[in-house]
Amino acid sequence: MNRFFFSLIASTAVSFGQSWEDYYQIESVPSPAGVDNQIGGMTALRDGRIATCFNSGEIQIFSPGTKTWSIFAQGLSLPLGVVEEEDGSLVTMQWAELTRLRDTDKDGIADHYETVCNDFGLTGNYHEFAYGPTRDSKGNFYVSLNAASNGAGIEDRIRGPWIDIGLDRESHLASRGGANWNKNKDAAGRMYSRVPYRGCVLKITPQGESSVFAYGFRSPDGIHMDSKDRLWITDNQGDWRGTSPLYHVTEGGFYGHPASLVWKKNWTRDPLKVPVEELEEMRTPAAGLFPQGELANSPTQPIDTIDPKIFGLPGGELLIGDMNQRHLIRFLPEEVDGTLQGTLIPFLASPDLGMGNHRFTFDKNGSLWIGKTHIKWAGDEGIKKITWKKKQPLLATGVSLLNDGFKISFNRPLKEAPKLKVSRHTYKYQKSYGSPKVDRKTVEVESAELSDGGKVLTITLPEIVERRLYTLELTGAADPEGRALMDKVLRYNVVKKRGNQDRKLTLPRLKS
Amino acid sequence: MKYFLSLLLTLPLAAEDKVPPPGEQPFKTNCAACHMLASDVVGPSLVSLAKTYPKAKQGEFVAWAKAPGKKNTNMIQMPSMAHVPDADLAKIHDYLLSTADGVKEKSGKELYPKFKEPKRPLPYVVRASMPDSSPASVGVILENGLSVCWDTEACRFRYAYVGNKTNLFNIWKPASLPNKPFYVESSDVLIHSATSDDKKGSFFPITAKPRFRGYRLIDRNPEFHYSLGGFEIREQVGTGGSGGTIKRQFTISHLDRSIQLDLSSKGNAIVSSDKGTIKDGKLSLTAAEAKSFTLTLTKK
User: Fold this and answer.
1) How far apart are CA A369 and CA A328, in angstroms?
2) What number is the ipTM of this complex?
3) Which residues 230-289 of A have a C-beta within 8 angstroms of B?
């Protein structure tokens, strides 16, 4: 205790003890009565009201003026996202379909539940969550479909067709929860995709024509089209996911989880039998990596940051949530030779924020609304609202990869160069669940130099290695008034080095 | 202005740099998503694990974590933790024992108050996986104590049962119904069409895949919309005039020939139609009659 107290005093001597609550107000917003207070979708409507999907199947709309809720739709099956169309219709992704909810008689309640797209399969497996939609500037929808989990089998009646690549259907059936299933489940694959298009992202036109947009997902809870029509998807650590990734998703891409490869045209092989080396060649690396248990365990929805004058964060970033961590995460994207990669930094770490931060929307006043969930995993319930107190915390506002290091920009000058600890590591790409950190190396810092009046820190390293996650710890960084840098650990995922024109990426081979 | 790191090493340690217990990080990395301190969530709580695996059973704990079986029938089976070194699994075990020490299991084992389905105004329409129907089904809970399963995959009325349970959607399994259906439609194909020259008495099943288009709520009653082989069909489901009856109002557009509905069924109900004739469980309708007709289902 004494020792703790001493070090506390010692550290305040360098910087004031600050918390995020000094800069952001965190409020709870009461949910309506009679709902399962877990939230799968949230969007601020053009008229300023907040549409919210509850796990008990309602979409309710909150009017900030009167602080009252009203039911817009009900009886939906786990709506996990909602967007507003130009005519005021809401479009939501339910377990079994993408649905347009129209209020044709203008009484404030949807009376037409129009099926936009149900062109994908269901087996009755508990893990077949369906997320989205997000929309591009042309009005197309994008949804992401979970793979099934071998924690359970399938039901007798499915929405198919069943594909005959892999363990036979009968074995999936026979044994839901029984002894046979335990015998067969490994052959099914930890996460499996045997009906269309589990583990894929679908693109759906406003008229409902769908096509597979991308392959290779496991549990892609977070799907977001940013203001530049770039699609971002988070996925969860598990099989083929050493740690949770953030992907920049482009058409036709394969994002690492092989089960959904069966939905590629002319694909005939069992994905579980394709050599890892071949999958490695096919997969697109993640733009960002969340070390498991540190930054995220199950990352959730990304959302664009807004005008820095309204919320205090730089524009052009993503904010991302997580089920287990009591913080949000900023992603600072950077394009290097056409590849999007970047830096993840914790944000708003606070017991008041809590965990289970699942869905996000900015309201008209620039407050961030957060809907929470847990299902039966770690998480929380209810709604939080985050409002900037118009006081600027000291932040890293940009991290740029150099040929031989990193350039970190701050929104205010630092008093002096901080103590730096740099390391790099990666994860195994493997069938089994998760991965330890591998190839961990402490990186010698050759120099750390402040410039631009203290607003830019240039770090020089002996070399940059591709396909490594760099952890940059800036201990003791503070401005001249002693206000500390709010989050000191920056994690830059180097997919590509600068100026490496040999575009066949030299991938480090790791035995699983 | 160039700073060399060796000069900076003298900066004092911040308070948050205190060393966490050795098992904490591997626990957070590998276990925290499913195991909470005092409540069962996906997996058992640390309190309950500490009871199952006291210090003396550390070896068993490590062995189980690497090759788990199914112990709790109401929980999902854990994935193998074989990728975690034995030493870390032992540290995790120590961590859970010290963390759970002196903590009591939360009563009811539920971390959050269990959601209680409110009393819903009826009729109520809810999407759910339902037994003996596709995972994409719709429950229609009527105000007269009867309920209907309508399948959006086959685009047809599957069965009716007694009960007014509204919480039918369940992630983990198909809805459990309060009663066995009293009426189950058993034909392979419901709608049969005459040939284009409408030759009397000659019908063939329309095996084209129907396309579900959604539903409208008309005074809370669902009117299901679907396309089938060039026809647009609407089926509104509601209560009949008296207790124990269900009314199904059909409208079919773009129809140019007679059709037949195979109303073969199992159970204990009588079906009547306001148009056409029912013979041997088959309802025959002319194209004009089929534009709009109503079936009434009466529970015996």
Assistant:
1) 12
2) 0.92
3) 238-239
